[in-house]
Amino acid sequence: MESVLWQDQEKEILLQTPAEFCFEECLAFLARSANECTHEVRDGAVYKALKVDGEVVALKVDFVQGNAVGDAFSEPDFTPEPGTLRITFLTPPPKQSIRAATARYVRDWFDLDTDLRPFYEMAHKDSLLRPLVEAHFGLRLLGYPDLFEAVTWAFIGQQVNLAFAYTLKRRLVETFGEQVQHEGHAYWLFPTPEALASASVEQLTTLKLIRQRAEYVIGFAKLMVEGHVSKANLSSSDLATMRKALLSIRGVGPWTAEYVLMKCLNQRAAFPVQDAALQNALKQGLGLDEKPSQATIRERATGWTGWEAYATFYLWRSLLKIELSYEKISKIV
DNA sequence: ATCCAGGCTCCTG
DNA sequence: CAGGAGCATGGA
Asked: Where are the extended beta strands (E) located within chain A?
């Protein structure tokens, strides 16, 4: 039986969420940096501007308890605890194709299409992951559906602390991005490849990107503008193929490739074992004196097969000092 | 002040 | 092919 998974009402789009979904957990992750400039968490919602198929839209995304999708007079035909993610257009409602693309973006952003039950079953038997999935049940792998943003953000984050990376991103966005105004709030769009393809290395080093990484950003922007690289032609059924294609891009090494695979290309088996934060989370979680080697990490992760990206994401979450202000319902399959 | 941060390329031996 | 220098800034 086909259930109604989304509903388009011009100004609003309603997306059915799976049972393994907690909007507050997702919001807490999205609110992890006060210096974030490409979305804003406020009053129990997240606000964001984005460009889909060349059209700029500004959105509010919040959560509605219960099943708001489908015919109000019929019984909900799916999960025991249905919920609905509500997209509200702040800008004038765009045409249907843009609305559909927006819905697609939000589904990817919140990773609504992954069934987390196998992950939770696995994690529940793992001494390291169990407390994390219990504490953050319903947290989804928040991604960057836009390839240019995902790759550029990874470049910016290479070998600098996250706080500084956010500062660099803000400078880049405020220099090369577009801004949308709505009711006294300003929403920034991440720069397009076109905007950065024509930038100079000097413009970016002025923002304190080091020369080498400025070249990576501009080079990748040009690859996209010239049509040599796109999310579509990078996507393939084979993880190894995608990995190889990413690694052929200048500036993309093992860490960046895995990062983009997990945050943009929906690869649940991507595993950035080179990642300093993952290593620190494991050091802390396992009570080690030193950061574990990559070999040690892979050994510890043998049970995570197919879910390495989610395990990594929950381990990253364990490092964030974010408290949720509500009573959490922790329920594991 | 010192260490290190959600690394990568390029050059040695 | 493994190992290491260089990049270069800022948070803690």
From this structure: 6-9, 12-17, 40-42, 45-52, 55-65, 83-89, 179-182, 185-188
Residue A327 in this model has a pLDDT that exceeds 50 = no
pLDDT at A65: 86
Q: Is the CB of A169 under 7 A from strand C?
A: no
Q: Given a cut of 80, is residue A63 above it in pLDDT?
A: yes
Tokens representing residue A113 in the block: 């299409």
**Tell me, in Å, how far CA of A21 is from C1' of B12?**
52
> How far, in Å, are A19, A23, A77, A94, A171 from residue A332 at the CA level?
10, 16, 21, 39, 41
Specify the pTM: 0.92
Q: Tell me the pLDDT band of A255, cut-offs 50, 70 and 90.
A: very high
Query: Is A275 labeled as catalytic in the residue annotation?
Result: yes
Protein CA A252 to sugar C1' C6 (Å): 18
Query: A53, A111, A115, A275: which is the annotated catalytic residue?
Result: A275
Cβ of residue A167 near strand C, that is under 7 Å?
yes
First to last CA, chain A: 23
The three-class DSSP label of residue A182 is strand
Structure confidence at residue A177 (pLDDT): 97
Nearest nt (C1') to A208 (CA)?
C9
CA-wise closest residue to A63 among A92, A35, A93, A30? A30
Of A27-31, A217-221, A233-237, where does mean pLDDT reach its minimum? A233-237
Give the residue among A52, A56, A58 at the shortest CA–CA distance from A87. A58
Distance, CA of A161 to C1' of B1, in Å: 19
Residue with smallest Cα–C1' gap to C10? A164
